[in-house]
Amino acid sequence: MRFLLIRAEPKVSLYATPVEIDPESPAMPISQPSHYAVYLAKLPGSFATLGMAEDTWALNEGAIDEDAFLEQSKLIQKEREAMFFSVLDHTRHGVVACVFDTTDRVQHMFYRYLEPARASRRTLTSLSNSIATWIASCAARRQYVDTDTALFVLSDHGFCPFRRA
Question: Which of 80, 151, 156, 162 is 20 to 30 A off residue 132, Cα-Cα?
Fold first, then answer.
């Protein structure tokens, strides 16, 4: 659980992320096999266990602003990167797969700014550039990617303005 002081005066406003399941001692299965969450938590440390770690509702409802949402998203991205590389370091053969959904969450929340162009357009460009840099650094790591290894980068969908549901 993380806290963010929104303001101290005239009234204190404190945002708290939703309560999550402790991956080191889960009250219910959160991975398959069930002991894998404990294994992961012991590698890089505790991690978000919500289905959607980035709190889009807090941004939609005005509980946090866009900067706070972006900071939260960056923290989750760094957490996933640490988990991914930690698992790669401990995997001798087989397949390692990791879902990086920060791009999805941020694009859903900021795509509306592309029409008309606004300052937040830079947010999406910056995010795309950081992901491209991360992919290049992953591919450059010879201990992970060699002539016998395939690196796949996939996207589950593209983006367009969200004008109806």
Answer: 162
Q: How far apart are CA 35 and CA 56, in angstroms?
A: 29
Task: Answer whether residue 161 shows pLDDT above 70.
Answer: no
Stretch 111-121: mean pLDDT: 64
Is the overall model pTM greater than 0.85, yes or no?
A: no
Average the pLDDT over 117-132 and give the result.
Answer: 71
Q: Tell which phi-psi region holds residue 59, choosing left (phi > 0), alpha (psi between -120 and 50) or beta.
A: alpha
Dig out the tokens for 17 from the structure: 């992320």
| pLDDT higher than threshold 80 for residue 159 | no
| Nearest by Cα to 98 from 117, 79, 121, 111 | 79
Round to whole Å and give the CA distance between 48 and 11. Answer: 30
Grouping H, G, I as helix, E, B as strand and the rest as coil, residue 124 is: helix
CA distance readout (Å), 52 to 12, 100, 146, 162: 27, 11, 33, 19
